[in-house]
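User: Please predict the structure of the protein below. I'd like the answer in structure-token form so I can feed it into my own downstream comparison script.

Assistant: Understood. Taking the following sequence of 394 residues as input:
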Amino acid sequence: MRRAKGAGGLERQTVELIGKSALAASVCWYIAHDLMGALTPAFAPFSAVLIMQVTVYQSLLQALRYGAAVCAGVFVQAGLGFLAGPDLLTFVLVALIALVISRWRRLGSQGVQVATAAFFAFSTYTSSTGNLQRVEQLSQILALVGIGCGIGVLINLTILPPVRYRSAENGIRTLSHSLCDLLSDIPPVLREGDLGEENTEGWRQRAAALGTTVGHSRSALLTAWESRHYNPRRHLPGPLRDQDFSGYQEVADALERVTYQVASMTRTLHQWPQEEDGEECREFLAHYADMLDALAQIIRRFSEIDLKRLARQTAQACACAEAARDKHRQLLERARDTALPLGDPSRPYGILLVEATRLMDEAQHSCDVLHHSARETEQRETEQSARTAREQAR
């Protein structure tokens, strides 16, 4: 609660979601229990809380899936119940059919609710007397679920509708920060020539773990993208009004490819033959370390990405890319001037040069994508300012 009060972020968003869920549940209980006098009023607040998600888009999607799952479960029970009666064999058939339907991929995580609804409906069916009362009770379950889903979506849409624009930046920052840390830790060891098992195994494991960070980054981008849909706040004036995250998606894709190249490079270093030594070998590793240092400076700019400072950050990233390109050129030229077996596939030098070239290309592409995104952002802001000026002139 202290962190939520102090600044915006995950804690505040969590508090907002809890508050909206409690409000939706309370309204649903009042309608179901006090106004309708339903026998099972908990269906309404349960439905409202269940479909309350971090974005309006997800709330609507989960409401549709949950509603479809409950309807399927109730209809299965009703059909078999009225045909075969409320006995054990009927329950077995209801359970089997409901569990088969729950596997339908279109229902997603709400598939399990098919069986849940069918079991609750069967319990209500057996406790009712007469077919008319049974129809009324089953219809009431569907009505309560509809009320809960409707109120949940309505409250999420109208009261502080969640906007996760910053999650796109945070996802890229986290991935870039992890990449930068790894690229910054390797050069000092290369200059010392200490390619022992302890160092190289640690690099390889950290590079492999970056795959999880890539997944989190993509998830953050997806959440930011979903925040735009059916969200009334995106129609308000502001710099984020027309944000489409296509630039961030391209940057994330480029950084993901950098991650793969770093993983390949660390595997090569981990397999470094112990007999590879000598003055030329040490010079090669030192020049390679210089290039990695320059690449780390590029990635560091992405770890600080901010839409408000995108133009300046783009200029800094492009300057770092030019410096890294010079280091890469020096590495290639000095490697060719040595007697190292660059063309021997069984020796690590040529492989590391190929991976250095790929790393440099991906880092340069990342800078180009950031530059393109910055230009599009500047163009949108210019157009927005022009529209505002025209509206004020009218």
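That's the full token string. The radius of gyration is 29 Å.
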